[in-house]
Write a structure and sequence with these properties.
about 70% helix, globular
Length: about 325
Protein backbone atom coordinates (compact mmCIF):
# COMPACT_ATOMS: atom_id res chain seq x y z
CA UNK A 1 0.00 0.00 0.00
CA UNK A 2 2.83 2.42 0.79
CA UNK A 3 4.13 2.88 -2.82
CA UNK A 4 0.61 3.87 -3.91
CA UNK A 5 -0.09 6.05 -0.88
CA UNK A 6 2.86 8.39 -1.37
CA UNK A 7 1.99 9.66 -4.89
CA UNK A 8 -1.64 10.11 -3.80
CA UNK A 9 -0.57 12.00 -0.68
CA UNK A 10 1.73 14.19 -2.79
CA UNK A 11 -1.13 15.13 -5.08
CA UNK A 12 -3.40 15.82 -2.11
CA UNK A 13 -0.76 18.12 -0.61
CA UNK A 14 -0.29 19.93 -3.93
CA UNK A 15 -4.04 20.62 -4.06
CA UNK A 16 -4.51 21.66 -0.45
CA UNK A 17 -1.34 23.65 0.24
CA UNK A 18 0.14 26.69 -1.55
CA UNK A 19 3.74 26.58 -2.73
CA UNK A 20 5.02 28.33 0.40
CA UNK A 21 3.40 25.70 2.66
CA UNK A 22 4.30 22.63 0.61
CA UNK A 23 7.56 21.66 2.33
CA UNK A 24 6.16 21.50 5.86
CA UNK A 25 2.99 19.69 4.78
CA UNK A 26 5.17 17.20 2.91
CA UNK A 27 7.40 16.82 5.95
CA UNK A 28 4.39 16.00 8.13
CA UNK A 29 3.07 13.50 5.59
CA UNK A 30 6.46 11.83 5.11
CA UNK A 31 7.07 11.74 8.85
CA UNK A 32 4.22 9.25 9.09
CA UNK A 33 6.59 6.52 7.95
CA UNK A 34 9.16 7.63 10.54
CA UNK A 35 6.52 7.69 13.29
CA UNK A 36 5.50 4.20 12.24
CA UNK A 37 9.10 3.02 12.39
CA UNK A 38 9.65 4.60 15.81
CA UNK A 39 6.44 3.17 17.28
CA UNK A 40 6.90 -0.20 15.66
CA UNK A 41 10.18 -0.94 17.43
CA UNK A 42 8.86 -0.88 21.04
CA UNK A 43 5.39 -2.17 20.08
CA UNK A 44 6.59 -5.07 17.94
CA UNK A 45 9.35 -6.07 20.35
CA UNK A 46 6.80 -6.04 23.21
CA UNK A 47 4.32 -8.14 21.20
CA UNK A 48 7.03 -10.62 20.29
CA UNK A 49 8.15 -10.88 23.92
CA UNK A 50 4.61 -11.18 25.32
CA UNK A 51 2.80 -13.16 22.61
CA UNK A 52 4.58 -14.09 19.37
CA UNK A 53 5.90 -12.53 16.19
CA UNK A 54 2.77 -13.80 14.37
CA UNK A 55 0.53 -11.60 16.52
CA UNK A 56 2.54 -8.47 15.64
CA UNK A 57 1.52 -8.92 11.98
CA UNK A 58 -2.15 -9.10 12.97
CA UNK A 59 -1.97 -5.92 15.06
CA UNK A 60 -0.08 -3.90 12.43
CA UNK A 61 -2.33 -5.09 9.60
CA UNK A 62 -5.47 -4.20 11.53
CA UNK A 63 -4.11 -0.73 12.33
CA UNK A 64 -3.49 -0.13 8.63
CA UNK A 65 -7.04 -1.13 7.69
CA UNK A 66 -8.54 1.15 10.34
CA UNK A 67 -6.49 4.12 9.13
CA UNK A 68 -7.36 3.46 5.47
CA UNK A 69 -11.08 3.42 6.31
CA UNK A 70 -10.80 6.68 8.28
CA UNK A 71 -8.94 8.40 5.44
CA UNK A 72 -11.45 7.23 2.83
CA UNK A 73 -14.31 8.56 4.94
CA UNK A 74 -12.78 11.96 5.76
CA UNK A 75 -10.65 13.12 2.81
CA UNK A 76 -12.20 15.27 0.09
CA UNK A 77 -10.87 17.65 -2.56
CA UNK A 78 -10.77 21.36 -1.48
CA UNK A 79 -13.72 22.10 -3.76
CA UNK A 80 -15.78 19.33 -2.15
CA UNK A 81 -14.76 19.39 1.51
CA UNK A 82 -17.53 20.70 3.75
CA UNK A 83 -15.07 22.39 6.13
CA UNK A 84 -13.37 24.45 3.37
CA UNK A 85 -14.95 27.85 2.65
CA UNK A 86 -14.64 29.97 -0.50
CA UNK A 87 -12.01 32.25 1.04
CA UNK A 88 -9.76 29.28 1.78
CA UNK A 89 -10.27 27.84 -1.70
CA UNK A 90 -9.39 31.18 -3.28
CA UNK A 91 -6.29 31.53 -1.10
CA UNK A 92 -5.10 28.04 -2.09
CA UNK A 93 -5.67 28.66 -5.81
CA UNK A 94 -3.96 32.07 -5.81
CA UNK A 95 -0.78 30.96 -4.04
CA UNK A 96 0.55 28.12 -6.16
CA UNK A 97 -1.64 25.10 -5.39
CA UNK A 98 -1.94 22.75 -8.37
CA UNK A 99 -5.61 22.90 -9.40
CA UNK A 100 -7.35 22.37 -12.74
CA UNK A 101 -8.33 26.03 -13.05
CA UNK A 102 -4.65 27.06 -12.99
CA UNK A 103 -3.53 24.52 -15.63
CA UNK A 104 -2.09 25.46 -19.00
CA UNK A 105 -4.20 23.95 -21.76
CA UNK A 106 -1.23 22.54 -23.68
CA UNK A 107 0.35 21.14 -20.51
CA UNK A 108 -2.78 19.13 -19.70
CA UNK A 109 -2.25 17.19 -22.94
CA UNK A 110 1.27 15.99 -22.09
CA UNK A 111 1.12 12.21 -22.28
CA UNK A 112 2.17 10.07 -19.34
CA UNK A 113 4.90 8.26 -21.28
CA UNK A 114 6.34 11.59 -22.41
CA UNK A 115 7.12 12.50 -18.81
CA UNK A 116 10.16 10.22 -19.09
CA UNK A 117 11.55 12.50 -21.82
CA UNK A 118 12.22 15.28 -19.34
CA UNK A 119 15.74 15.18 -17.93
CA UNK A 120 14.40 16.59 -14.67
CA UNK A 121 12.05 13.64 -14.23
CA UNK A 122 14.81 11.15 -14.97
CA UNK A 123 17.03 12.98 -12.50
CA UNK A 124 14.30 12.78 -9.87
CA UNK A 125 14.15 9.03 -10.43
CA UNK A 126 17.90 8.59 -9.92
CA UNK A 127 18.08 10.98 -6.99
CA UNK A 128 15.22 9.31 -5.13
CA UNK A 129 16.72 5.90 -5.88
CA UNK A 130 19.87 7.04 -4.09
CA UNK A 131 17.97 8.40 -1.09
CA UNK A 132 15.90 5.26 -0.62
CA UNK A 133 18.98 3.07 -1.03
CA UNK A 134 20.26 4.47 2.26
CA UNK A 135 16.88 4.81 3.98
CA UNK A 136 16.12 1.13 3.47
CA UNK A 137 18.96 0.27 5.82
CA UNK A 138 16.94 1.91 8.59
CA UNK A 139 13.78 0.07 7.50
CA UNK A 140 15.37 -3.37 7.23
CA UNK A 141 18.87 -3.98 8.67
CA UNK A 142 18.90 -1.35 11.42
CA UNK A 143 17.47 -3.56 14.22
CA UNK A 144 19.84 -6.39 13.22
CA UNK A 145 22.77 -3.98 13.27
CA UNK A 146 21.98 -2.84 16.81
CA UNK A 147 21.45 -6.41 17.97
CA UNK A 148 24.32 -8.21 16.21
CA UNK A 149 26.98 -5.52 15.78
CA UNK A 150 26.29 -3.52 18.94
CA UNK A 151 24.92 -6.20 21.26
CA UNK A 152 21.62 -4.56 22.23
CA UNK A 153 18.91 -6.74 23.76
CA UNK A 154 15.18 -6.44 22.98
CA UNK A 155 14.54 -3.86 25.70
CA UNK A 156 17.41 -1.64 24.55
CA UNK A 157 16.37 -2.11 20.94
CA UNK A 158 12.91 -0.79 21.77
CA UNK A 159 14.34 2.36 23.39
CA UNK A 160 17.75 3.32 21.96
CA UNK A 161 16.64 2.08 18.54
CA UNK A 162 14.02 4.83 18.33
CA UNK A 163 16.53 7.70 18.58
CA UNK A 164 17.44 8.02 14.85
CA UNK A 165 13.76 7.90 13.90
CA UNK A 166 12.77 10.57 16.42
CA UNK A 167 15.63 12.78 15.25
CA UNK A 168 14.51 12.31 11.64
CA UNK A 169 10.95 13.38 12.45
CA UNK A 170 12.03 16.53 14.28
CA UNK A 171 14.67 17.40 11.68
CA UNK A 172 12.26 17.08 8.74
CA UNK A 173 9.59 19.21 10.42
CA UNK A 174 12.10 21.97 11.19
CA UNK A 175 13.48 21.83 7.65
CA UNK A 176 9.98 22.06 6.19
CA UNK A 177 9.14 25.10 8.32
CA UNK A 178 12.41 26.84 7.41
CA UNK A 179 11.99 26.10 3.68
CA UNK A 180 8.43 27.43 3.64
CA UNK A 181 9.46 30.55 5.54
CA UNK A 182 12.26 31.22 3.04
CA UNK A 183 9.88 30.86 0.08
CA UNK A 184 7.24 33.01 1.79
CA UNK A 185 9.86 35.75 2.16
CA UNK A 186 10.70 35.66 -1.54
CA UNK A 187 13.60 33.20 -1.77
CA UNK A 188 14.04 31.36 -5.06
CA UNK A 189 12.07 28.09 -4.88
CA UNK A 190 14.66 26.15 -6.88
CA UNK A 191 17.49 27.24 -4.61
CA UNK A 192 15.52 26.35 -1.49
CA UNK A 193 14.54 22.92 -2.79
CA UNK A 194 18.05 22.08 -4.02
CA UNK A 195 19.69 23.25 -0.80
CA UNK A 196 17.42 20.92 1.16
CA UNK A 197 17.88 17.93 -1.16
CA UNK A 198 21.61 18.25 -1.82
CA UNK A 199 22.47 19.09 1.77
CA UNK A 200 20.24 16.34 3.10
CA UNK A 201 21.80 13.65 0.93
CA UNK A 202 25.31 14.79 1.78
CA UNK A 203 24.36 14.59 5.45
CA UNK A 204 23.00 11.12 4.81
CA UNK A 205 26.54 10.02 3.96
CA UNK A 206 27.34 10.36 7.69
CA UNK A 207 26.26 6.72 7.95
CA UNK A 208 29.82 5.78 6.95
CA UNK A 209 31.13 6.98 10.33
CA UNK A 210 28.82 4.70 12.34
CA UNK A 211 30.68 1.46 11.61
CA UNK A 212 34.07 2.42 13.15
CA UNK A 213 32.45 4.31 16.05
CA UNK A 214 33.90 3.36 19.42
CA UNK A 215 30.55 2.87 21.18
CA UNK A 216 26.91 2.27 20.39
CA UNK A 217 26.08 5.81 21.51
CA UNK A 218 28.55 7.41 19.10
CA UNK A 219 27.27 5.13 16.34
CA UNK A 220 23.69 6.19 17.11
CA UNK A 221 24.69 9.86 16.84
CA UNK A 222 26.03 9.33 13.32
CA UNK A 223 23.04 7.19 12.37
CA UNK A 224 20.68 9.86 13.72
CA UNK A 225 22.49 12.53 11.67
CA UNK A 226 22.25 10.33 8.59
CA UNK A 227 18.57 9.44 8.99
CA UNK A 228 17.55 13.00 9.89
CA UNK A 229 19.44 14.38 6.90
CA UNK A 230 17.74 11.91 4.57
CA UNK A 231 14.33 12.84 6.01
CA UNK A 232 15.18 16.50 5.44
CA UNK A 233 16.06 15.75 1.81
CA UNK A 234 12.75 13.90 1.44
CA UNK A 235 10.80 17.09 2.23
CA UNK A 236 12.25 18.62 -0.92
CA UNK A 237 11.98 15.45 -2.97
CA UNK A 238 8.27 15.02 -2.26
CA UNK A 239 7.63 18.74 -2.82
CA UNK A 240 9.14 18.57 -6.32
CA UNK A 241 6.29 16.74 -8.11
CA UNK A 242 3.94 19.58 -7.18
CA UNK A 243 6.55 22.11 -8.35
CA UNK A 244 7.57 20.60 -11.70
CA UNK A 245 4.44 18.79 -12.94
CA UNK A 246 3.33 20.27 -16.31
CA UNK A 247 -0.24 20.35 -14.97
CA UNK A 248 -2.17 19.32 -11.88
CA UNK A 249 -3.01 16.06 -13.62
CA UNK A 250 0.67 15.05 -13.67
CA UNK A 251 1.54 15.56 -9.99
CA UNK A 252 0.68 12.04 -8.84
CA UNK A 253 2.13 10.57 -12.05
CA UNK A 254 5.54 12.15 -11.46
CA UNK A 255 5.32 11.20 -7.78
CA UNK A 256 4.62 7.62 -8.83
CA UNK A 257 7.46 7.60 -11.37
CA UNK A 258 10.08 8.73 -8.87
CA UNK A 259 8.61 6.42 -6.23
CA UNK A 260 8.88 3.51 -8.67
CA UNK A 261 12.61 4.17 -8.98
CA UNK A 262 13.01 4.56 -5.24
CA UNK A 263 11.38 1.22 -4.58
CA UNK A 264 13.78 -0.48 -6.96
CA UNK A 265 16.38 0.71 -4.46
CA UNK A 266 14.20 -0.87 -1.76
CA UNK A 267 14.72 -4.21 -3.50
CA UNK A 268 18.43 -3.86 -4.22
CA UNK A 269 19.62 -2.20 -0.99
CA UNK A 270 18.64 -4.89 1.58
CA UNK A 271 19.98 -7.63 -0.70
CA UNK A 272 23.28 -5.84 -1.26
CA UNK A 273 23.67 -5.08 2.45
CA UNK A 274 23.17 -8.76 3.22
CA UNK A 275 25.59 -9.83 0.49
CA UNK A 276 28.31 -7.50 1.74
CA UNK A 277 27.76 -8.69 5.31
CA UNK A 278 28.32 -12.27 4.16
CA UNK A 279 31.39 -11.39 2.13
CA UNK A 280 32.97 -9.31 4.91
CA UNK A 281 32.12 -11.62 7.84
CA UNK A 282 29.41 -9.46 9.37
CA UNK A 283 31.27 -6.15 9.13
CA UNK A 284 29.00 -3.21 8.37
CA UNK A 285 31.87 -0.96 7.23
CA UNK A 286 31.72 -1.85 3.50
CA UNK A 287 27.91 -1.63 3.45
CA UNK A 288 27.94 1.79 5.08
CA UNK A 289 30.67 2.91 2.69
CA UNK A 290 28.59 1.92 -0.33
CA UNK A 291 25.52 3.65 1.16
CA UNK A 292 27.51 6.86 1.71
CA UNK A 293 28.76 6.78 -1.88
CA UNK A 294 25.23 6.33 -3.22
CA UNK A 295 24.05 9.27 -1.08
CA UNK A 296 26.73 11.50 -2.61
CA UNK A 297 25.66 10.42 -6.12
CA UNK A 298 22.12 11.41 -5.21
CA UNK A 299 23.28 14.84 -4.03
CA UNK A 300 25.15 15.42 -7.30
CA UNK A 301 22.09 14.35 -9.27
CA UNK A 302 19.83 16.93 -7.61
CA UNK A 303 22.52 19.57 -7.97
CA UNK A 304 23.36 19.11 -11.65
CA UNK A 305 20.74 16.93 -13.38
CA UNK A 306 17.39 18.05 -11.93
CA UNK A 307 16.30 21.40 -13.35
CA UNK A 308 14.32 24.29 -11.92
CA UNK A 309 11.49 23.79 -9.43
CA UNK A 310 8.83 25.14 -11.79
CA UNK A 311 6.24 23.54 -14.10
CA UNK A 312 7.88 21.72 -16.99
CA UNK A 313 6.88 23.21 -20.35
CA UNK A 314 4.73 21.15 -22.76
CA UNK A 315 6.71 19.11 -25.25
CA UNK A 316 6.48 20.23 -28.84
CA UNK A 317 7.05 17.58 -31.57
CA UNK A 318 10.61 18.86 -32.13
CA UNK A 319 11.35 18.93 -28.42
CA UNK A 320 9.95 15.44 -28.01
CA UNK A 321 12.42 14.18 -30.61
CA UNK A 322 15.28 15.89 -28.78
CA UNK A 323 14.02 14.68 -25.39
CA UNK A 324 13.64 18.26 -24.21
CA UNK A 325 14.46 19.19 -20.66
CA UNK A 326 13.33 22.01 -18.44
Amino acid sequence: MRPRAYPSATKAASRWFPKHERAFSTAVIDSGSRVGTVLALPVVTALIALVSWHFSFVVLGAAGLVWAAAWYWYYRDPREHKHANEEEREYIANHGARLEETDDEDAVNVRWRDLFKYRTVRGMMLGFFCLNFVIYFFLTWFPSYLKDARGLDLAELGTLGTLPGITAIVGAWIAGLVADRRIRRGADVTRVRKTIMVGGLLGGAAIVFAAPASSVYVALIFLAISYASLAIAATGIWSLPGDVAPSSRHVASIGGIQNFASNIAGIISPFLFGLLLDVYDGSYGPSFGVAAGVAVIGALTYAFVVGKAEPLPPLTPRKQDKQQDS
